[in-house]
Write a structure and sequence with these properties.
The chain contains 10 helices and 13 strands. The chain is α/β, with parallel strands linked by helices. The longest helix is centred in the C-terminal third of the chain and has 19 residues. The structure holds alpha-D-ribofuranose.
């Protein structure tokens, strides 16, 4: 395993060569309670502050990429309700194209906007860890025909980013369209798929696979987050199903990147963690932007992929230092400051 230090600085992307990303994924309103600890089954505990933050892995990655300077189109669905309207306004304000976000009528004919119920560990040593249950609602209504209708934006993108909070057959269909068109496909296999549900053929159309410890273990049960010696074999096995690159994110332990037949270790950047929601999405979006930027520049070697992972780790570290999912996502300038060692947390 090669452990290389983070580069001291990396060039900021020029405004006129924005990468084009298409994000197909979820939009959830997160209902968040900070608690002194996670409750055990059957237990009620008294929490602290309650807040509502826009989130959902798809929306988080779309907004994160836009803040990093990418031109972003999103494919997804919301309900014709208060949360859905908030999302449409928010995405427009962030510069994300909403042309392929469907608005569903209320149930029973349609479905409501997705919701995430989030508990944040507010204890001193809890580091803002989260546990989340999602009711995906409208997110699960996107059909392959609607993905077909977005063929143009998928095909014109440098990269398609997806997660697993949408129907699997539509995800597989989008991956196929992108692959046919020569766009790079990044799959963040989150949340962890239930046993036996992950379509084995999907990885054949995936170029970059990103998982955290739970998701990695769901796909490769022998991957033991506590045992680094298992990482290389298990990431190589995942890459063997199609991806050029397999990434394991490890929170405050950074990330491990399998690319070009070797494993590299990227440390996390120092930040005081108050809320980890959205940090993985910040990582994925920053990694994607930087990968696509290098790819457009004509070179994608191990050093460039390492650089992309540094951007991912820097973005993730900033996100954990702030509250909420979308409100915590950094701009390109903030990530560049973190990479130079000059990022200072603001309230
Ligand atoms: O990755 C964090 C996100 O997962 C949250 O915003 C929540 O909505 C779930 O989709």
């Amino acid at each position: 395993m090669s452990t290389t230090p983070n580069p001291p600085s990396t060039p900021a992307q020029a405004d006129d060569d924005a990468v084009r990303l298409c994000v197909f994924g979820s939009l959830n309103m997160d209902l968040v309670i900070r608690a002194p600890r996670f409750p055990t089954p059957g237990e009620t505990i008294v929490g602290g502050r309650f807040a509502r933050f826009p989130g959902g892995k798809g929306a988080n990655q779309a907004v994160a990429a836009a803040r990093l300077g990418a031109a972003v189109s999103m494919i997804g669905a919301v309900g014709d309700d208060e949360y859905g309207r908030k999302f449409m306004a928010l995405l427009k304000a962030e510069g994300v194209s909403t042309r392929h976000i469907a608005v569903r009528p209320p149930p029973p004919a349609g479905a409501p906007t997705g919701v995430g119920v989030v508990t944040i560990d507010d204890s001193e040593d809890g580091k803002g860890q989260n546990s989340i249950v999602v009711a995906l609602g409208a997110n699960m209504t996107i059909t392959p025909a609607e993905v077909d209708a977005a063929k143009e934006v998928i095909s014109q993108a440098d990269m398609l980013l997806m997660q697993l909070e949408a129907p699997l057959e539509s995800i597989a269909h989008a991956a196929h369209i992108a692959k046919d068109a020569g766009a790079t496909v990044l799959l963040n296999a989150a949340p962890a798929p239930a046993p036996g549900t992950f379509p084995p053929g999907l990885l054949a159309d995936v170029d970059v696979l990103i998982v955290n410890e739970f998701e990695g273990r769901a796909l490769r049960p022998r991957l033991d987050p506590a045992d680094e010696s298992t990482f290389e074999d298990e990431l190589r096995a995942l890459a063997g199903h199609g991806p050029r690159c397999a990434v394991l994110t490890l929170g405050d332990r950074g990330a491990r990147v399998y690319f070009d037949k070797s494993l590299a270790s990227i440390p996390a950047y120092p930040a005081a963690s108050v809320d980890t929601v959205g940090a993985g999405d910040a990582f994925c979006a920053a990694f994607a932007c930087r990968w696509a930027w290098h790819q457009i520049g004509g070179s994608l070697d191990a050093l460039n992929v390492h650089d992309a992972a540094c951007w991912g780790c820097a973005a993730g570290s900033i996100a954990v230092a702030r509250h909420g999912a979308i409100p915590s996502l950094p701009t390109r300038g903030e990530v560049a400051s973190m990479l130079r060692g000059g990022w200072v947390a603001s309230a």
